[in-house]
Amino acid sequence: MPPSTAKGTLSDLGTLGGANSSSSASAINNKGQIVGNYNSIGYASYHAFFYSNGSMTNLGTLGGAYVNSYASGINNSGQVVGASSTSSLGSLASHAFLYSAGTMFDLNNLVAPGSGWLLNNAAGINELGQIVGTGTINGQSRAFLLNPIPIPAAVWLLGSGLLGLVGIARRNAA
């Protein structure tokens, strides 16, 4: 049942410029950090934003000028996911992204080459860093779950690779 009288507060998050600009929020974490996208009228594109402590930050895009991005999820670590068009190969393909520590990463760079996957949109991220979204494989649109490699496993893989290199170097020196 809806409340009979309003008791909350409403805040205008603003935009990143322009008198006729617009913004749209899509997710909030437990710290009150908000993500979404904004557009300034007269510009041919919209960009993802991160809002925290009264300040909105442009997250940019994966491509060049006049491409779009939007943020759709954020975890309590402030990691943001969404989608960005790219200007690669003369097209504006949509690629899923992770924005972390001030940098936007194309999630397709984390997928094994030759897998057939194109991750188009990252919709959410949880506290474990697991990312869900939509991609295409073999021409079919599919939901995906992208699991990060745990740090101990990543260290083990790096250590194994280094030991292998040392073994090859010793064998070649003999």
Structure characterization notes:
The protein is mainly beta and 174 residues long. It has one helix at residues 151-173, and strands spanning 22-28, 34-39, 46-52, 55-60, 69-74, 80-85, 94-100, 103-106, 117-125, 131-137, 140-146. The strands form 3 sheets. It has a 4-stranded antiparallel beta sheet, with no helix packed on it. The chain has a 4-stranded antiparallel beta sheet with strand order 5-6-7-8, with no helix packed on it. 25% of the residues are buried. The mean pLDDT is 84.
Which features characterize this protein?
174 residues, mainly beta, four-stranded antiparallel sheet, globular
Low-confidence spans: pLDDT under 50, at least 5 residues? none
Q: Count up the helices.
A: 1
Order of helices and strands: EEEEEEEEEEEH
Spatially, the strands of the biggest sheet line up as 1-2-3-4
Distance between the termini: 80 Å
The backbone outline, from C-alpha atoms, is globular
Average of pLDDT: 84
Query: Mind describing the biggest β-sheet?
Result: 4 strands, antiparallel
Cα Rg: 20 Å
